Write the structure tokens for this entry.
Amino acid sequence: MTTLDFNNVTKIYNVRGAGQIKALDDVSFHLESGQTIGLVGQSGSGKSTIAKILTHLETPTSGEVLLDGAPIPNSGKGLRRYRQELRMVFQDPFASLNPYHTIRHHIERPLRLDHVVAKDQVDAEVRRLLERVRLVPNDVIDRRPHELSGGQRQRVAIARALASRPTLLVADEPVSMLDVSIRLGVLNLLADLQREEGLGVLYITHDLATARHFSDEIIVLNRGRIVEHGSADDVILTPQHPYTRSLRDSSPDPEKHFAGSGSILGGE
């Protein structure tokens, strides 16, 4: 089992003309394989800062991130191992894919860089990963991102994230840029992969309805601080903090939203 500990992390940005801005204020949580945590909050709450710190794009001002109880190295093989264990699915599936490269290239690259399979097995692994995210390999493998729909592009991005055989996945608003009609299919896919692969998932969203149905626990962020943290049902059905209640009251009714669905997030 892989464990990730985000311990007492504070992040302060020095902004010219505005002084210091505290994006995160003493934030802590624990994520492990097979668990999904929903990280909920409005824009500016600190969600993206957490994602950047986890993916080593930012460093904490104070506090630490531990993988299996050990601090994350700043360079070398240890950092490379961490980046192989934890992968990210970005919000915009078009911006996160290089428009000049084929789908084959996007998925081959992490396979080769991380030496996931032998060279003579790379093509078969690319096709397996595409099938894993419910795409037909021959239909997409030699196409470029602009030739695919938004939902197909996000599935490619998920396949690329899975290529390194991670144990942890950070999904940063993974469906917010997609048409409403295809969001549930992508979320169902993530839920299935999480369950079948035993992934630990940090699901970053502003949507309480999907957070409840996709997550074991929910963390509510407001202005860089955790204002509520508990089981998904407890946080949504009996919120203790006024901010959580305001988020819930301004969101669609989760029960009505998912009424009649055949799985936790509806059909494809």
In short: The first helix runs from residue 47 to 54. Residues 257-268 have pLDDT under 50 and may be disordered. Strands lie at 3-15, 19-32, 36-40, 62-67, 70-71, 86-89, 168-172, 200-205, 217-222, 225-231. The chain has one domain: 3-257.
